[in-house]
Amino acid sequence: MQKRINIRLIIASLGAMLVCGVTAVQAEGLKLGYVDMKSAVENTADYQHGMKGLKALQQSKIKELQALGEKISKSEKDLLGQSMAMSPDRLAQKQQELKSLRTEFQRKQQDAQESLSAEKNRLDMSIGAKFGKIINTFGKKGKYDMIMPKPMFLYVDPKHDVTAQITKLLDAKK
């Protein structure tokens, strides 16, 4: 397992060198930067605002589902308490109503999950589009040869970190 990981690291490093065409001598003239994309995006005001909205939506969905869950619990208790005194037709009707409530609960739960996922995707896409434009503009204005995502490197001197600058630019662009 360890040998397999080491081989992958070596292959990835060699691949990066081939793709970039960088040798130690050539690297001296390059202006490099790296960005912790997750941190840059998650620390923007837009993302924070979007996440607050998402949490509010989540809370409203939870309240809605809890209310329906309580209605189901009450119906179950009522059915258990009254089942002996009910006619078979009335019992079957109540059981069908309970089954319908459970089905409605499952559908609403699934709809809530899909709604939350869609909102999160919209937020990510919105900020992701800005992020790409900002990186390109920042790279051209700063005359960077490369700006790479942080996970690409095993080690990079922190002086090449442009994450804070990118976050400020993302916040400035409305």
Summarize the structure.
With 174 residues, this protein is mainly alpha-helical.
What do these coordinates show?
It is a single chain. By secondary structure, the chain is mainly alpha-helical. It has two domains: 1-29; 31-172, 2-Layer Sandwich (Protein Binding, DinI Protein, Chain A). It is 75% helix and 5% strand. Strands 1-2 form a two-stranded parallel ribbon. Helix 4 packs antiparallel against helix 5. The radius of gyration is 27 Å and the shape is rod-shaped.
Give the topology.
Blueprint lengths: L1 H19 L3 H4 L4 E4 L1 H6 L2 H38 L5 H54 L4 E4 L13 H10 L2
Parallel strand pairs: 1-2
- What is the general shape? rod-shaped
Arithmetic mean of pLDDT: 83
Helix content: over 70%
Please give the largest β-sheet.
Answer: 2 strands, parallel
What is the CATH topology assignment of the largest domain? Answer: Protein Binding, DinI Protein, Chain A
- Which CATH class of the largest domain is shown? Alpha Beta
Q: Based on DSSP secondary structure assignment, what is the total number of beta strands?
A: 2
Number of domains: 2
Poorly predicted regions are: 1-6, 21-26
Along the chain, the helix and strand elements come as HHEHHHEH
**Strand ordering within the main sheet:** 1-2
Structural class call reads: mainly alpha
From the coordinates shown, what is the CATH architecture of the largest domain? 2-Layer Sandwich
Termini distance? 48 Å
* Estimated share of beta-strand residues: under 5%
